[in-house]
Write a structure and sequence with these properties.
This protein is of the alpha/beta class. The protein has helices at about 1-5, 20-30, 45-50, 70-75, 85-100, 190-200, 225-235, 235-245, 265-275, 280-285, 295-310, 315-320, 340, 390-395, 405, 440-460, 470-485, 515-530, and strands at about 10-15, 35, 105, 110-115, 120-130, 135-140, 165, 180-185, 205-210, 215-220, 335, 350, 360, 365-370, 370-375, 375-380, 395, 425-430, 465-470, 535. The protein is globular and about 70 Å long. The structure holds ligand NA7. Ligand NA7 binds near residues 188, 191, 211, 381 and 382.
Length: about 550
């Protein structure tokens, strides 16, 4: 069609998830021509790919949504306290219909690279797939998410496996039926912890291969409370504002007390109270020093371990499930529905890979150092090349042909997590160096999209063709991001925030720990000062 034949735009956006959809909407509002390129067959991004059984957001439904459409937030009916993947996907599909976004999205189209043509002042974007070929645009916006490139386990033999296998982050659209099957699950992060109880419901047996146990808090999920819905709807503007001003992007008051300044009894009582809310953020914000003081953290960690010991019948299994390698909250803590309880069922077995390491996948199943586990199906809940996987997976080249992957060889550098020196007119929504995954992503995304839209509006109204981060500002922000994390216990965990889950990845803390509220102030000040730290040129 004439539409798909078009190759020149003001803006090319990569990705049609939460970020890309809203970016497109704002760009239209500015009167800019824009196209969104998306590998998947549908909108949704993370919520399109992660359709494994039990996939659910750990931010409450009423807060994990767009605020830009006040009528939508009044109308949309969430059914559960925490939204499931199908419901979030339905919501994003609805947003796409409601704002007529699909006509500017090209599905089944993967961006393989983008090159900044200095003479023309334009990005040349190469694509593969349905609408392959090259597109050109004045601006390139990556909306590729933070957890989008699935990571395979570093074990040989997967290709020899005779059964079916799936990665949680690239789950097929068709229903996967595990009934009567012997299922193995490798990985016990958020995805594995959500999936295991669901699979255990149908499968003949479930074998969970655990390398590092993680902390998990029960969600106490259920039908959404109509009184809560009414209250939030009545107060949405104020509640959204509180979320934006907060640390984690959810409207919770910041903790004022140290865990060490109250008595052990008082701590126990208060932690139980927070635990009963079914929110990991409530537990993490019980005290103000859980992520900075090892002793304070130990109190919370021991509290969670006690809860595991309470639930799991077999004391030996309970001890294997108790995390000890890293402080509570320094790897992304999980939220579950019946995870620990599942290990009380006879057909569910926990294999401790610390004791008996994973050696290979065989035609018949999974071999650990002491045994071959026969399986009909295998689930890889082994995580993602987080923060940079999707971004650096594209061959992006800036001035002088510099490759972004080379620039980020020792870890990503970025000004505000939004822009990179040497890469004019490139914006990265929730890029490395922004608070992104350390907060409610919906809040982080809206703030970034709105900031980028305002920057583009400024450029248009001042007749500015190019915007580029200064190397000095970029270096200063990158140092600030790393120093902020250095003062926390986050550095003690082999987390994906640090790239530690991917062999060979530089060990650098890639997320800004300062909180969304503080971060928004910094971004707003930069804009108010005429885009301080950026070079603007006609
Ligand atoms: P995570 O949190 O990165 O978890 C991946 C899990 O897979 C974790 O338990 C890993 O153990 C395990 N893993 C990875 N590679 C291997 C190998 N080779 N052998 C054994 N076990 C392995 O990913 P998720 O998808 O669960 O969650 C990602 C984020 O999505 C989550 O944090 C939320 O923000 C939403 P390890 O800890 O490396 O020993």
């Amino acid at each position: 069609t004439a539409r798909t034949a078009r190759t020149t735009y003001d803006v090319v956006v990569v990705g049609a998830g939460f970020s890309g959809l809203y970016m497109l909407h704002r760009l239209r509002g500015l009167g800019l021509s824009a196209v969104v390129l998306e590998t998947g067959e549908d909108v949704g991004g993370t919520w399109y790919w992660n359709r494994y059984p039990g996939a659910r957001c750990d931010v409450e439904s009423m807060h994990y949504s767009y605020s830009f459409d006040p009528e939508l937030e009044q109308e949309w009916e969430w059914t559960e306290k925490y939204p499931s993947q199908p419901e979030i996907h339905a919501y994003l599909r609805h947003v796409a219909e409601r704002h007529d976004l699909r006509r500017d999205i090209r599905f089944r189209t993967t961006v393989t690279g983008a090159r900044f043509d200095e003479a023309a002042g334009r990005w040349r974007v190469s694509t593969e797939g349905e609408t392959g070929g090259e597109l050109e645009a004045r601006f390139l916006v990556t909306a590729v998410g933070c957890l989008s490139t699935p990571k395979q386990p570093e074990v040989p033999g997967l290709e020899t496996f005779r059964g079916e296998w799936y990665h949680t982050g690239a789950w097929p659209e068709e229903h996967v039926d595990f009934s009567g099957k012997r299922v193995g699950v490798i990985g016990t992060g958020s995805s594995g912890i959500q999936l295991v109880p669901e699979v255990a419901r149908d499968a003949a047996s479930v074998t969970v291969f655990q390398r590092t146990p993680n902390f998990s808090v029960p969600t106490r999920n259920g039908p959404i409370d109509p009184d809560l819905v009414a209250h939030v709807r009545e107060n949405y503007p104020q509640i959204r504002q509180e979320a934006r001003r907060s640390g984690f992007g959810v409207p919770l008051p910041p903790p004022e007390r140290s865990a060490l300044e109250v008595s052990a009894e008082e701590r126990e009582r208060y932690l139980h109270e927070q635990w009963s809310k079914g929110s990991v953020t409530a537990v993490l914000t019980s005290y103000n020093d859980l992520l900075v003081d090892a002793d304070a953290n130990h109190v919370a960690a021991e509290f969670v371990r006690d809860r595991i010991r309470e639930v799991v019948d077999d004391p030996e299994v309970a001890e294997v499930l108790c995390p000890r390698d890293f402080p509570f909250g320094t790897k992304r803590p999980c939220m579950d529905t019946g995870y620990y309880e599942t290990f009380n069922e006879d057909h569910v077995r926990l294999v401790d890979l610390r004791r008996t390491p994973l050696e290979s996948v065989t035609p018949a199943g999974v071999r650990t150092s002491d045994e071959e586990h026969e399986l009909d199906a295998l689930v890889l809940a082994t995580g993602f090349d987080a923060m940079t996987g999707a971004l650096l997976g594209m061959d992006i080249r800036g001035r002088d042909g510099q490759r972004l992957a080379d620039k980020c060889r020792d870890g990503p550098t970025s000004y505000l997590g939004l822009a990179m020196a040497g890469f004019p007119n490139l914006f990265t929504i929730t890029g490395p160096g922004s608070p992104s995954v350390l907060s409610n992503m919906a809040v982080a995304i809206e703030q970034h999209v709105e900031w980028i839209a305002a920057a583009l509006e400024h450029l248009e109204s001042t007749g500015t063709a190019l915007i580029e981060a200064d190397p000095a500002s970029e270096a200063e922000w990158t140092d600030h991001v790393r120093e902020s994390a250095a003062g926390t216990l986050h550095m003690e965990a082999n987390s994906w925030y640090l790239g530690a889950n991917v062999p060979g990845k530089p060990r650098v803390f890639m997320v800004y720990v300062g909180g969304v509220g503080v971060y928004q102030d910094v971004c707003d000040e930069v804009a108010a000062a005429g885009y301080k730290g950026f070079e603007l040129s006609a």
